[in-house]
Amino acid sequence: MSTVIGAGRARVWRALTAPDEVVRWDERTVALVDPPDGYPRVGEQVRWRYRLGTVRVIRHERPLEVAPGLRLRSSILLGGLRFDETYTLTPEPGEPDRTRLAIKLVSSNAVPVVSGLLDRFDVRRLAAKLVDSRLRSLQRWCEDGP
Description:
Blueprint: E1 2-5, H1 9-17, H2 19-25, E2 29-32, E3 46-52, E4 55-67, E5 71-78, E6 81-92, E7 95-107, E8 111-113, E9 116-118, H3 120-144
Antiparallel strand pairs: 1-7, 2-3, 3-4, 4-5, 5-6, 6-7, 8-9
């Protein structure tokens, strides 16, 4: 999924990677538990306090690829959900002040939960909802924020 944001790549990248900004635009992210120096760095795990609906969980994030202003790929553990999340930033052709931000999630076909499994269709619906929410929130923040 992707969206076009009315801000340059440097602004969008900062919103994605500055912990103090992330907790302001992402309504599900509450706080960074153990702030590392120089986030994000490949292989360095960080933990965020996170709300998944009404349930508070810890979001474990381990960056796998960091290309400033271009790509951020991380391994995520969110409650019982495991997935890889990739943000890709590209300039809109002919519009240097606009950025296309894409998010790609990769997860297994079934996710174990208490008393059963979420099948791939349930996982896909949940992932699509989370991605859409993050894209819209980040877009609003970069276009209307400070």
